[in-house]
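Re: folding output
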Amino acid sequence: MAKLERASFGSKLGVILATAGSAVGLGNVWRFPYMTGQNGGAVFIVIYVGCVLLLGIPCMISEFIIGRRAQANTARAFRKVGGTNPLSYIGYMSVLTGFLITGYYAVVSGWCLQYIWASLIGQLQGGDPSFFTNYFATFSQDAVKPIFWTILVLFIAFFVIAHGVRDGIERASKLMMPTLFVLLLVIVGAACMLPDAGKGIEFLFKPDWSMINGDVFLGALGQSFYSMSIAMGCICTYASYFSKQTNLTTSAVQIGVIDSVVAILAGLMIFPAAFSVGVNPDSGPSLIFITLPNVFQQAFSAMPAVGYLISLLFYALLSMAALTSLISLHEVSTAFFQEEFRMPRRSAALVVTLSCIVMGAVCSLSLGSSGQYLQLFGKSLFDVFDFVTGQLFLPLVGFLTCILIGWFVPHKMVRDEFTNQGTLHNVRLFHVYLFLVKYVCPLCILWIFLHQLDLI
């Protein structure tokens, strides 16, 4: 049987932008701002950056090592690197996690497209705070509209994935990531020029050390894990397309910096506007779909046309961030089906797309009037998927990956990949990495895991 030719990224820029696009998503533009608002602002950011350095980057390098060493989809990569060790089968769990996340993440991505459309036709203009609450509730519980947008966003992802690694993922990343940064900077500039915007900037950059407590540390640890797409299979899958010359440590640091900068810029985009109109910064998960439309409307009430444009650009930005991550999640499962079942790439991508449409439709319907028939343990299927993947699978896969790399994979193999077969003079840095991945990362992840289950 002929061996499948392994795809690869065509340039260093493509490696960085595609992998950064995988990490940069709703976790940065949606989750990071509301987590920052709920955990004291600047002090949360300081701890978060520390967590990225001590937890996020070593975990990312571990997935890079597995993916590039094996040059295979995530499930097969773990089997190749782990050998007969039972932990090698966690690659399958990672693929399953990415697959399940794709199903419900596509629903939220579809909401972003709906809000672009609503902004274009003026549906988000002229309402009071209760209007935006009712608008989101009515739309998200509708039996048809959210599913339509879910199908559309999944087929956009399918179109990119079907064109392959270089002509699809890499080309799309080179277009979308710079566009995302430009949109971010435009909205940040507009938000920071509002009256009393300085209060929001101070909230983000002037730490109040009295706010530090265990919950802030745990929140920052969890956010660094969520934000950098660790344990979803994305990082490992993309690393399998890296060349042998790619510096894994440098790439991880660059991606960590991009990821953190985007998250902080998202805060600069949101909090100056929120403080300008007196909105509480800890509005929680509803921030972008309920609170922010009202914030934009109030902040630019003297210039309705500008408010309309900023609202439109914001939801375009949000959709772009959601799509870059959705593409990487889709690729995890596509690569698995393509290689494990020897399917043509387009067929594998179509199988994943259609499966995720079914999952997405069920998750969306579970939030609507028929939701009582689509529940488990008193939760909607949407919330069940979110809980199982985010609070169980992600920390468990991350923990076991660190244990596998730190304690069972031969250190020579790990060192060879870390140092590019000895061509990089970073052996001392390797020992720092190995200490973090053997001791610090597993303990931190275990702490997060037990806290999320209310066991500590």
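--- second protein (sequence, then structure) ---
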Amino acid sequence: MSESVFVYKGTDRKGKQVQGEAKGASTALVKAQLLRQGIKVKNVRKKSKPLFGAGKAIKPQDIAVFTRQMATMMKAGVPLVQSFDIVADGVENPRMRELIEQIRDGVAAGGGFANSLRQHPKYFDELFCSLVESGEQSGALETMLDRIATYKEKTEALKAKIKKAMTYPIAVLVVAFVVTGILLVKVVPQFAETFSSFGADLPAFTLFVLGLSETVQDTWYLILGGLIITIYLFSFFRRTSQKFSDGVDRTTLKLPIIGNIVYNSIIARFSRTLATTFAAGVPLIDALTSVSGAAGNAVYRESILNIRDDVATGVTMHSCLRSAGIYPSMLIQMTSIGEESGSLDEMLDKVATFYEEEVDNMVDNLTTLLEPMIMAILGVLVGGLMIAMYLPIFQLGQVV
């Protein structure tokens, strides 16, 4: 039974008024607990949850930190249930604390660590649960948690780099769009009123900008609404349509610069996941099934499943990788060495580290490249609009 937080008021043995909070499964149990402490309870009630600010959403980074903390506690010899209590006490996010307490209650009730995690599939995928279950069965849970923690940390760091690479170009486009919109809606109309009294023909560039400004003023709500609807529909079909999602995955790999970053991240994730599962003693066939789900791209998900089927018939994995034609030679060669030497997990770990560094370098280079590009794009947009507005004034000065 899960515990709740109760607020109480009462008097201690000296008759002094006291109040505070206590955890318990019910009001009666809390009263009994306080009575044993020498507190005569006058009022006790369940603490109400705040309407707002009930805690931030649980992020994958929170799960990675939780895993690392649990691995540290168990390596230090702290019992499993007590480890949950210690970790939960140090968590600031109420939702994460509640999740840890629910897992602790499941373990304390005899459900097992992996089974308790499976009750929360939103935060713990089947790969995570399978690795924990493998650690429980082998009696090396602390070692397995350490491997999982390293895997989660590396994976989340890689995702953060990819997100950074994707966010920067989008931010450039948004800034350029907003600045241009403000100039066309607010600034250009002021010049248009001035030009109406000139009584002379305006330059073609100026007329073009004025016409564009009028169009934006008349249809800005349609443009903005169209953008919002497009973004919503893209997000909706990305979540609900497997065919559409697969098409986006294939297109992403063909994009300049971004495609290379995504490709390297997929290879790094493939190598890291397979190294972790194989080192945990998971059979290669089952490991490849888990890896296909963690690939993050339809092209490689299908390819990995095909490799799994071929490996099941006795074909070596490096031969399957070579036949697929979409994997780098370094991965193929290191896999071949690992299969021959019996150290496949170590070789894959080296490949993962190499490609993670490649992603890191490519993202840094992209950031360095985009910084002057931002200035150039904004300079062209703002400068072009200003030139269009001042051209008639320059011509007027020449006439005078």
